[in-house]
What we know:
The complex is a heterodimer.
Chain A: E1 6-17, E2 20-32, E3 37-41, H1 48-55, E4 64-72, E5 75-76, H2 82-88, E6 93-96, H3 110-121, H4 127-140, H5 146-149, H6 159-171, E7 177-181, H7 189-206, E8 209-214, H8 217-223, E9 226-231, E10 234-240, H9 241-246, H10 251-258, E11 308-309, E12 317-318, H11 324-331
Helix pairs in contact in A: 3-4, 4-6
Chain B: H1 2-29, H2 35-40, H3 46-56, H4 62-75, H5 87-122, H6 127-141, H7 144-158, H8 174-208, H9 211-218, H10 223-254, H11 256-261, H12 267-276, H13 280-308
Helix pairs in contact in B: 1-13, 5-6, 5-8, 5-10, 6-8, 7-8, 8-10, 9-10, 10-12, 10-13, 12-13
Amino acid sequence: MTEHLLEVADLRVSFRTEDGVVQAVDGVSFHVDAGEVLAIVGESGSGKSVTGMTLMGLTRGPNARFEGSARLRGTDLVAASETQLRAIRGAQIAMVFQDPMTALNPVQRIGVQIVEQIRAHDAEISRDAAGKRAVELMERVGVPRAAERLRSYPHEFSGGMRQRVMIAMALSCSPSLLIADEPTTALDVTIQAQIIEEIRRLRRETDAGVILITHDLGVVADVADRIAVMYAGRIVEQGTLEEIFYDPQHPYTWGLLGSITRIDRERPERLPTIPGSPPSLLHPPQGCHFRTRCPHEFERCADVPPLEARSGEPAHCDRCWLAPQEKRRLRDLGDGEIGLATGETVIA
Amino acid sequence: MTRFVVRRLISMSLVLVAISIMTFLIFQAIPNGDPAQRLAGRTSTPETVAAVRHTWGFDKPLPEQYVTTMKKIFSGEVISYTQQVNVLDEVKRDLPATLSLALGAGIIWLALGVLFGVLSAVTAGRFTDRALTVLALIGVSTPVFLVGAVMLYFLAFKLGLFPNGGYVPLTQDPLDWLYHMILPWTALSILFIGVYSRVLRANLLDAMNEDYVRTARAKGISQRRVLVRHVLRNSLIPIVSLWSLDFAAVIGGGAILTESVFNLQGVGQYAATSIQTLDVPPVLVIVMLGAFTVVVLSAIADVIFALLDPRIRLSGT
Lengths: 348, 317
């Protein structure tokens, strides 16, 4: 087996807060290969952003604790020193953040901000050369009149343009891994599609691995190769796009899939939801974290189900004790529709 | 830009008119405030008082009195009641001492306030931060007359390290000027250093949580560069307006206590003695000087603001 670009093994991140210890990431393992898009999907607070930021070393702080490892081409990002990390982030791993409206420094010109990153990882490059490179990057992500626009300030850009700038910045040192944390959430739908196209093109052209963190399954369906579904700090299901969309194993995934709006079907009275809310990570439930909201809970759920391949496909893993045939029976709402049937919320 | 200046000039005139009317009226309302009585002296006959009242124009209606006084102020002929000297000459004489105090102390409190604020924010929650917090609280809550008196007593009177107050013009002897200014600068700065370091600490901690600071860190630039170029650069913007207002207030006689304790013979001390003797013209002039500097400096601060933050446009430009 060849070595993966990124191999995360049993990553745990906890934060000490005034109310107690919050286990934000609770034993997460996954890998990303070059040229592959892994989507990490989940609700707010499921630990997907913390996972991404931890890979960049951005969650480090006096109250944070880390366990496990995250190896990027052999270098453990969790154990790396701040100096090692500084050389890695921005150069080998780059991140695009959720809100492009606030992610750029409002009082610095766009060009200055891009050049800063280029020069941070290339001590030799002259200011002019870095400026030229910035123009190329801006052109590459589709910013018109790039040379001129470099002299603009962030507030003179629209949200979509700013996100392009963020992507240009992330690409400036040709990273081998790009982490995109909800890159389209704050944008209009039309702009979303353009940004997604940008990410797709980037993967095609650079062979970089991409971690796409999102709660938008529509976006996932567009670009992802593989999907990891996170719930309350754990990965509850992992598999290829097809496996997750057409043969989902975990009741939480059914719920997620059931709550997508679809234009190819009649619109339900109300959009199906998963009843309840995610558990507090201060006091998560014993055993399976989803069992408090799961209509199919039974005795075994008090023990934590390991992430194992149960459906028959070796790379399709989930954390649910139900037998695979049982799962297929329970999730079908008829008409090929998948959802979290709860008895009371029958989907029209 | 022209429209900005015109707007500011109009609002400045309004402020000056309003503040001078208020000051003028306050002195009319003060009990025992009849200037004719005091000018005529304690043992004067009612006839003398009436005569004084007539020659000084105190028997005219209030609006007329106000207008006459303002005319005199702007033509530079206004005479104080007690000393009966030209007020503007007095203020001009006192201004260098006040400017020396304001400039020196302003630089010191800005520099040290920023230094301590940054130190405090970088070490937030740790020992240095806690110690600086306590020091800042002590600085903010200790009145300047106490600090000044204690300094004078120990450093000047007991140890003889510094002169016992007084002011030496810079043009006369720069070294002696410095020698005389060190204690007043320190005493006046202490309060402001406390305030500025606390304000900046809060601004910095807020800024550190900004998304663009996270972006900066994600770029892989050094911690120091993140702090200086992204955090501090943005946090200093509000400090500019704070500083310009405080600085203007000190020039406009706001350092009454410091000037009095160290006997600097500045504008503030002149205001203090004039208030004691209910001498309206000097008080009016100094209050208007204060208001004038505040308005001018806040306009300058707005211009600097717009230069520092590209999102801000001067209103009316």
